[in-house]
Amino acid sequence: MSILYVSPHPDAFPSLRALIAARYGEAGEGPGWGGAHPRVCLQPPPTSRTPFPPPRLPALEQGPGGLWVWGATAVAQLLWPAGLGGPGGSRAAVLVQQWVSYADTELIPAACGASLPALGLRSSAQDPQAALGALGRALSPLEEWLRLHTYLAGEAPTLADLAAVTALLLPFRYVLDPSARRIWGNVTRWFITCVQQPEFRAVLGEVVLYSGARLLSQQPGSEVPAPPKTATQLKKEAKKREKLEKFQQKQKSQQQQPPPGEKKPKPEKRGKRDPGVITYDLPTPSGEKKDVSGTMPDSYSPQYVEAAWYPWWEQQGFFKPEYGRASVSAPNPRGIFMMCIPPPNVTGSLHLGHALTNAIQDSLTRWHRMRGETTLWNPGCDHAGIATQVVVEKKLWRERGLSRHQLGREAFLREVWKWKEEKGDRIYHQLKKLGSSLDWNRACFTMDPKLSAAVTEAFVRLHEEGVIYRSTRLVNWSCTLNSAISDIEVDKKELTGRTLLSVPGYKEKVEFGVLVSFAYKVQGSDSDEEVVVATTRIETMLGDVAVAVHPKDPRYQHLKGRSVIHPFSSQSLPIVFDDFVDMEFGTGAVKITPAHDQNDYEVGQRHGLEAISIMDSRGALINVPPPFLGLPRFEARKAVLAALKERGLFRGIEDNPMVVPLCNRSKDVVEPLLRPQWYVRCGEMAQAASAAVTRGDLRILPEAHQRTWHAWMDNIRDWCISRQLWWGHRIPAYFITVSDPAVPPGEDPDGRYWVSGRSEAEAREKAAKEFGVSPDKISLQQDEDVLDTWFSSGLFPFSILGWPNHSEDLNVFYPGTLLETGHDILFFWVARMVMLGLKLTGKLPFREVYLHAIVRDAHGRKMSKSLGNVIDPLDVIHGVSLQGLHDQLLNSNLDPSEVEKAKEGQVPRTGSGATVWAEVGEAASGRPRLTPPHRRQTSRRGFPSAAPMPSGLDCVPTRPRPGGYESLVDRWIRSRLTEAVRLSNQGFQAYDFPAVTTAQYSFWLYELCDVYVECLKPVLNGVDQVVAECARQTLYTCLDVGLRLLSPFMPFVTEELFQRLPRRTLQAPPSLCITPYPEPSECSWRDPEAEAAMELALSITRAVRSLRADYNLTRIRPDCFLEVTDEATGALASAVSGYVQALASAGVVAVLALGAPAPQGCAVALASDRCSVHLQLQGLVDPARELGKLQAKRGEAQRQAQRLRERRAASSYPTKVPLDVQEADKVKLQQTEAELRKVEEAIALFQKML
Q1: φ, ψ for residue 165 (rounded to 5)?
Q2: GST C-terminal domain: from which residue to which, for each copy (predicted)?
Q3: With 80 as the cut, is the pLDDT of residue 880 above it?
Q4: 778-782 and 816-822 beta bridge pairing
């Protein structure tokens, strides 16, 4: 058994780091070193067990007498399930190692320096401001990196996050107050996200952030004996003292400056550089093309860039499938793409959840359109029966003090239509601001005459076939709404025990989460025998009709055929024996109330028990004896409990974990009630839908959702489609009364007395035929209820195309290509569309379903207007103040108690491009996203803030193909462009949106702007015009292809830039959104040789930049000497030396002859295993100080190499460690040994300089 020795101190962050790594090892595939999970010991190891002085904690003993490993870095790496890895293989492992090293060498010293004085563990004479400044400098790279990343390496926590989070535990607990955390917002967001992971919480518990007030058991200044400091620590402190001296000298020099009044203050210049919000002010009539003849603003402005383009696109008809062809029926060899929008509820406005859906759909639509396919993205809006009625009812009551019943049905419906006309356009306005390329001429509303006719037709057909039928069953009932509601409108609130909840209509809170036990007396018992039962809803005992026990329960065998007496009605309740009873729960006896519980209802059906409803639609008690008659249900709860106590039948009450069903519209407690309703038989339709997925006719992506699909289809129940509302499609069914004595009067549940029809006249004819009488003897009363909103939504893919009538659109665009939506409505909408489509049209409504993740708020809740946690996409695009968000809350229908919880955050301007980019970039992560896009797109460097248009592009584009005069860097950027095109098309085809955005982001920012444009500057300023012209053509190709790649995600900014580029041909399309999308066949410039050469150049550049940063050489261009191991590498390094000089801001870049020594006084870095970089430092740095740094670096490298050798030498290593990890360890050891050799050489070099 391995043993992990850790410190018991709650702030011992190295030990916490090891414990959390062990937790991840337990949750994953076991520790990365391949052994069993270690036992944790909260003390140092006994000296008798260690063959050396006791190691520092944490320490890991790998079995009795086995290998010892100590130190947080090494122990955590061994315990972590994937070692240094994580997603991404060896490349990710390198990134993890870099951040782990940064945490160990930079974060921990800075964090301790800032935190320990606050804890009284260092002398108060130390300068706390200097310590905080050092901490700030250490946090800066983290803050910048985390602007665009959720975690440090990959999409889940890795060893990098573990090392950095534990390093920062002390500052977040004791130093960083709320104002400081606002400054480091990205770091704080990442820190909180990590510590809330289950593995972190299991070790750390709830991490309480520093509030600004400190209660210390030890006052600052009271010294605590510290262990002797190592040489490395002393050198680090000497470096800190040197920085402090420089800081003090700077402060002193500032104090010696003349008073501010004697010269012009500098802040004036800063003001001039901030032009404010730049807008497009040129007079452009709506629908006319934007004037791009002038120069672009100096700074990027979404308001300027996004102005005028959308009306022009719409006016030109670019979004219509008919554009560029005679008709939609014209054959198109490129194919057809059709997708309908998931119709948003017409309840005021969209939120970021809708924005995510539309961002993905618009990107896909634009990609298919640019590929030349006949493309239709059909817009629409859902009437949202319950949600809309609730909103309008609240509005009426708030403004006029009227209920809908006081107003009357027809007048109320006019109010709803009026409200819809006011609010419906806002949704479409939001979609246009997002750039959604919908065909607005085909926009539909589910209450439009065309769609209403389809709803009526579907109901009548299904009713005539017996698929729709009338039945009295238990339904989810909202007493506040006085309506049945669907499962998706029921929230499950989990309680751990006794809880008081607010219920609409009750002044006092109602108790839930308790189990009440009471006794039923056995009828005819001489010994006063009783049966004790328990319930969480004591008021329902007034509707009990039996007591049930298990057939094999020996305690009740003697009661077969016996009954108990109801204490309030004196009725005899039989004791029934049923397998559903759990003998181990409670007393093993349960009360049976068929009319108010689904399980009890099924028991009642099996035993022929009467179902007695004891509640009306408003929740008042009926069919019960006084004094309970007429009481509201939860007042009856208290009355029944008191009466049982009075009669001596109360036996106890205890806490009981339970789930309370709540209506998500009214927040009322949902009651199961027996009501006659209309139902859809789903069995056969569900089998057909399931079989379609099994055969592969319908693809559901990601494929993990297919299991959910089959589980739902296999266990489906009939669908209740009745809703007791006024707003919606009134059910086209009529109750029949026959004026003929020969025909007995009917009752509601009897389906024979119900008839459906497309009109009342048709229904009367059908009823007369059914009963064999003349039509004049038939009286009809149409059902007052409306259909479930999901019924009309289930018809949406074909009703919007004109079904049941034949039309060109229906022939061309049905079945559709794709259905894209959130995974939360896979059953409620997607499954019903598939079932109804197959049943009514004989075809699947679409061939593929892509399901994205859900946007959630900081509390992990879905965005919902009823919670007040929605963010309007327009507020992200234009920006909104904190007060503006609060005003929206106050003007909403939100309950006042929820307003304060919803008051969070301020949203800066980002434009639609940044909004769409951030949404789509995380669309396929498969996890709920808690970060709104505005928090990921605030950096000017954070693409897509602005696409650069480098100067020097004054050229006439002539050819997209290479001309033979391309330089190495020209060939390289074309090769990288080819890869970006390949990855983009491949990602779109696989719905891998993060892969597409990552490929394009990397090309634009890291390859085109960071490398190619920088390398181009000396070329464009040079004398060789042939090479310069070739570079211009290459740059034009990159911009042209790159903008086309980016257009589906960022249509506005790419259109703005595209319109300012010259055209290669006069026949070029008028807009980028209809320009062909780049395909691999067009861009086939892959050049492995050029990529290998430029990779060496970039490796050298990174090494030079690292050395410049290490030695603070920011204002000079030091000479650089490259030491290579072979002639081929030397030739390659010589070929790229000019690029290194431009990219690294170096002076002379020279390649040393094989075996030749580097000049005296150079710093050394490893660019690759074949090339070392020597940066001339003679006269620029202090050799003694650099020698200390190198010696520390040598010690760390030696320890790392020793750990790797010991790890690989373990007997179980070859069999238990995966081969890819073994290979990574081998490469890592080779790199470490090579680095160690170079460090040794550098140490010898600096020793000569002393």
Answers
A1: -65, -45
A2: 89-224
A3: no
A4: unpaired
CA distances from 1029 to 120, 181, 651, 1020 (A): 67, 51, 95, 8
Helix axis angle, 159-167 to 13-27, nearest 10°: 150
Whether the Cβ atoms of residue 962 and residue 974 lie closer than 8 Å to each other: yes
Is residue 1027 pLDDT above 80, yes or no? Answer: yes
> Looking at per-residue confidence, does 1189 or 928 come out higher?
1189
User: Which is nearest to 935 in space by CA: 148, 165, 156, 180?
Assistant: 148
Average pLDDT of span 976-996: 94
Backbone angles phi, psi at 720, to 5 degrees: -80, 120
Rounded to the nearest 10 degrees, the angle between the axes of helix 1013-1020 and helix 1025-1046 is: 150
Give CA–CA dist 203/197, Å, rounded: 10
| C-beta neighbour count of 250 within 10 angstroms | 10
Supply the DSSP symbol for 1218.
Answer: -
The structure tokens 């007060």 sit at 883
Helix (H, G, I), strand (E, B) or coil at 1211: coil
How far apart (Å, rounded) are the C-alpha atoms in residues 626 and 568? Answer: 9
Neighbours of 80 (CB within 10 A): 25
Strand-pair partners of 475: 673
The helix/strand/coil state of 684 is helix
User: 374 pairs with which residues across the strands?
Assistant: 336
Long-range contacts at 988-995 (CB < 8 A, ≥ 24 apart): 988/363, 988/364, 988/367, 988/1048, 991/701, 991/850, 991/924, 992/924, 993/360, 993/363, 993/920, 993/921, 993/923, 993/924, 994/921, 994/922, 994/923, 994/924, 994/925
Report in angstroms the alpha-carbon separations of 1049 from 834, 994, 1001.
Answer: 29, 12, 11
Neighbouring C-beta atoms of residue 1027, cutoff 10 Å: 16
Residue pair 424/417 in contact (Cβ under 8 Å)? The answer is no
Helix, strand, or coil (residue 660): strand
CA dist list (Å): 634 to 224, 257, 491? 62, 77, 20
Task: Please give the structure tokens belonging to residue 206.
Answer: 């709830």
Q: Could you give the count of Cα atoms lying within 13 Å of 1125 in the half-sphere of its Cβ?
A: 9
Q: What is the DSSP string of 467-528?
A: SEEEEEEEEEEETTTTEE--GGGEEEEEESS-EEE--TT-SS-EEESEEEEEEEEETT-TT-
Is the pTM value of this prediction over 0.85? no
- In sequence order, the β-bridge partners of residue 493 are 660
Angle in degrees, 0-180, between the axes of helices 1137-1144 and 1088-1110, rounded to the nearest 10? 40
Q: Which amino acid is at 776?
A: D
What pLDDT, on the 0 to 100 scale, is given for residue 951?
Answer: 43
pLDDT digits (tens, 9 = 90+) for 1095-1153: 999 999 999 998 888 777 878 889 999 999 999 999 999 999 999 999 998 888 999 99
What does the alpha-carbon distance between residue 787 and residue 723 come to, in Å, rounded to a whole number? 6
Residue 1246: Cβ-neighbour burial (10 angstroms; 0-12, 13-18, 19+): buried
676, 749 contact by CB (below 8 A): yes
* Closest among 724, 463, 465, 756 to 616, alpha carbons compared: 724
- The length of the chain is 1250
Residue 234 tokens, joined: 């002393």
What angle in degrees, to the nearest 10, is found between the helix axes of 1183-1209 and 1219-1249?
Answer: 150
**Three-state secondary structure readout of 730-791:** ECCEEEEEECCCCCCCCCCCCHHHEEECCCHHHHHHHHHHHHCCCHHHEEEEECCCEECHHH
pLDDT-derived band at 66, boundaries 50, 70, 90: low
Structure confidence at residue 386 (pLDDT): 86
Structure tokens at 1068: 């070029």
End-to-end Cα spacing for the chain: 52
- Residue closest to 586 by CA, chosen among 529, 617, 547: 547
C-alpha–C-alpha distance, residues 145 and 151, integer Å: 9
